[in-house]
Amino acid sequence: MDLWPENYETSWTLSKPVERQGVGLHSGKEALVRLAPSEEAGFYLSWLDSRDSPVKLDPKYARDSQLCTTLEVGSRRLATVEHLFAAIAGCGISHIHIQVSGEEVPLLDGSSIGWVEAIREAGLVPSSTPRSKPLRLVSPLVYYRGNSVITATPSEDFNLVGLIDFPQKAIGKQIMSITINPETFVREIAPARTFGFREQIEQLKESGLIQGGTLDNALVCDGDQWLNPPLRFPDEPIRHKLLDLMGDLALVGFPKAQILVYRGSHGLHTGLAKELFKACSKNFS
Ligand SMILES: [Zn+2]
Prior knowledge:
The structure is a single chain. This protein has helices at 82-90, 113-122, 182-189, 198-206, 236-249, 266-284; strands at residues 12-14, 18-23, 30-36, 42-47, 55-56, 62-65, 68-73, 76-78, 95-101, 124-126, 141-145, 148-154, 159-165, 173-179, 195-197, 219-222, 225-226, 257-262. It is α+β, with helices and mostly antiparallel strands. The chain folds into 2 domains: 12-126, lpxc deacetylase, domain 1 (Ribosomal Protein S5, domain 2, 2-Layer Sandwich); 141-284, lpxc deacetylase, domain 1. The mean pLDDT is 93.
């Protein structure tokens, strides 16, 4: 491999452990995440303060909480996993042990690039056991909530098409269509930061959310302008939406499908992930 695997078909793990720590977006609390090599296919999670054996993650642990995706494993929760999971799966890692101290994954700069850098620092090595087979859809799936919709149709590649339409002029209508592989993910999607709206900040803070949000880890939109430019891409918001979608699909594995999402949200993504998991586990047997 040059720097990243060519596709999502071969098995890769880290060559050594790597750690990052920082503040969670919603809790504002410090946490530490240690990413370690694993010989077992899948994503395993354990807590650094516990001797319990690691749990193999699948979509049934994902909860769509307000503004982020939270894992609920036994009596413990881990919030805001999506940017970390997008980085792990997006870079092509199929085998990993995630060890955590804290309740919310550090936000870093609001994108996945800090996690991609951590993975690059550790390096990838082929793993000795095969990854789970990519999900193959046999017929289209549709999942909707209100006027938001997400569809998955069979395809030879993993294609994403995202559309957003915001009344704020700084964002407006954005559309992006991309074939995802580790290289396109790292270049086109991973650097895109999370975004929010100036008029919602106070209310979210008062309700106990975004306690760790600052102008350094989230783009803030104020009608027809951004409070903290420059953007990394003119269409950074739709790229970040696709990043969130990848994070929410990471636990089912990226399907051989074209996924089209209109006005996506974590609830919509995790809903589709569960439908995909159900549809495709039927095909496995
Ligand atoms: Zn996000």
